[in-house]
């Protein structure tokens, strides 16, 4: 839900996680909305593969259709888990838009699990073009040329299978 001076909009999303085998799983997302604030449609999917020594690789694709333009992104990432308490991740992407330019970005993330394993502190930083950030769902093509540098931290707690509470500052 978003209320802005140009209107109010709802975005409906569906997430899917599918286990292929012990080492491979898929994550997908479909988002639909009116053509006011949010993208009309966004579709993304990533395949994850466990590697030796607690590493995990990701390869993904994302398409987003906005009011005046659309983007397609190719993503790649590598994660490492240490002693089940610390998770580190680097994720990069290349974004192509219908306005004819190629953009890039990179993000570093970390999670520090607390005693219960159902809660963690996290920190992140990154640089590059902002539109591929999952939290930025209402933008215009004027933001595509802006490179960003950001840092942030937060906390997340899983209460039950479908209930999570989190706070983040960027």
Task: Produce the secondary structure layout.
Blueprint: E1 2-4, E2 7-9, E3 11-19, E4 24-33, E5 41-50, E6 55-65, E7 70-82, E8 86-97, E9 102-113, E10 119-129, E11 147-160, E12 163-169
Antiparallel strand pairs: 1-2, 3-4, 4-5, 5-6, 6-7, 7-8, 8-9, 9-10, 10-11, 11-12
Characterization of the model:
By secondary structure, the chain is mainly β. The protein contains no helices and 12 strands. It has strands at 2-4, 7-9, 11-19, 24-33, 41-50, 55-65, 70-82, 86-97, 102-113, 119-129, 147-160, 163-169. Strand 11 (147-160) and strand 12 (163-169) form a beta hairpin. It is globular, with a radius of gyration of 17 Å.
Q: What is the string of helix and strand elements?
A: EEEEEEEEEEEE
Given the structure, what is the number of helices? 0
Total beta strand runs:
12
Strand content: over 45%
Termini gap: 21 Å
Radius of gyration: 17 Å
Going across the biggest sheet, name each strand in turn.
3-4-5-6-7-8-9-10-11-12
Structural class: mainly beta
Which range best describes the helical content: under 10%, 10-25%, 25-40%, 40-55%, 55-70% or over 70%? Answer: under 10%
* Uncertain segments: none
Oligomer: single chain
Shape: globular
Kindly report the average pLDDT value.
86
Largest sheet: 10 strands, antiparallel
Summary of the model, kept short:
The protein is mainly beta and 170 residues long.
List keywords for this structure.
single chain; 170 residues; two-stranded antiparallel ribbon; 68% strand
């Amino acid at each position: 839900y978003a209320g802005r001076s140009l209107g109010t909009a709802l975005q409906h999303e569906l997430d899917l996680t599918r286990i292929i085998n012990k080492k491979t799983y898929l994550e997908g997302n479909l988002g639909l909305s009116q053509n006011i604030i949010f993208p009309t449609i966004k579709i993304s999917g990533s395949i994850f593969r466990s590697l030796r020594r607690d590493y995990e690789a990701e390869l993904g694709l994302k398409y987003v259709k906005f009011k005046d333009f659309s983007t397609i992104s190719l993503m790649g990432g590598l994660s490492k888990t240490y002693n089940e308490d610390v998770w580190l991740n680097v994720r990069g992407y290349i974004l192509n838009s219908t306005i004819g330019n190629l953009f890039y970005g990179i993000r570093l993330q970390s999670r520090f699990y607390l005693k219960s394993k159902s809660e963690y502190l996290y920190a992140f930083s990154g640089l590059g073009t902002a539109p591929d950030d999952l939290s930025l769902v209402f933008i215009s093509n004027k933001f595509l040329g802006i490179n960003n540098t950001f840092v942030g931290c937060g906390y997340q707690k899983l209460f039950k299978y479908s209930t999570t509470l989190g706070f983040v500052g960027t």
